[in-house]
Automatic annotation (TrEMBL):
One of its GO terms (cellular component) is cytosol. This is HAD superfamily hydrolase (TIGR01549 family). The keyword Hydrolase applies. The lineage of its organism: Bacteria, Bacillati, Bacillota, Bacilli, Bacillales. SUPFAM superfamilies: HAD-like. GO terms for biological process: DNA repair. NCBIfam families: HAD-SF-IA-v1. Transmembrane segments: none annotated. It comes from Salirhabdus euzebyi.
Length: 207
């Protein structure tokens, strides 16, 4: 049985898809006069914002990302915790399972987007984008988590929703559980387990 469950945030615990895409569309249109469809921008999921903006050829991506984050605050009403996540976390804590977060968000972004939902105190360890020099799909974020938490890779499972999450887990030798409820292309994302709903993760811990 696993001793530690590590979770991604966007698309896994927090439904941020509309907020991220709408604010990104606004920023790109207003700052760079670029127009992208909703579908074109779904590739932004799973990697740090600065990294994604660089792939679009945006100059001074750090400044553009700061503007994006400010605009994102206007779309907070579109963000919500996925159904079943609160119950999942509570039951895992009852079973004395170590809980962690590995996210491509910076610590400030995590605070802005996630803390208001009142779940942050349930987590024992958190690794954000500013805690590592390399990011998903590189294994460094999960390896950093294993280091600070003193957890062995074989005792942990990472729950995420993107191919970047899958690759990060694979390269760090950690089992990967696909959060199908938030995944855009679940059939093409390799995983150790696929979960239709958050509560199905609890099946791993049934005696």
């Amino acid at each position: 049985m696993y001793k530690c469950v590590i979770l991604d945030v966007d698309g896994t615990m927090l439904n941020t898809e509309k907020a991220i895409i709408y604010s990104l569309q606004q920023m790109l249109k207003e700052e760079f006069n670029r127009v992208y469809s909703y579908a074109e921008l779904t590739r932004s999921f799973g990697i740090p914002g600065v990294t994604y903006l660089e792939t679009l050829g945006i100059e001074n991506a750090k400044a553009a990302n700061d503007i994006w984050n400010e605009m994102l605050k206007d779309y907070q009403s579109f963000m919500e915790i996925f159904p079943g996540i609160r119950e999942l976390l509570s039951k895992l804590k009852e079973k004395n399972i170590l809980l962690g977060i590995v996210t491509s968000k910076t610590r400030q972004e995590l605070k802005d987007d996630f803390f208001s939902f009142g779940l942050n105190d349930l987590f024992d360890y958190v690794v954000c984008a500013d805690d590592t020099t390399k990011h998903k799909p590189n294994p460094e974020p999960i390896l950093k988590f294993l280091e600070v938490s003193n957890v062995n890779a074989r005792d942990a499972i990472y729950i995420g929703d993107t191919i970047y999450d899958s690759q990060c887990a694979k390269e760090s030798k950690v089992a990967f559980g696909l959060a199908k409820w938030g995944a855009i292309d679940p059939e093409n994302i390799p995983s150790t387990f696929k979960f239709d709903e958050p509560r199905h993760i609890l099946n791993l811990f049934e005696k």
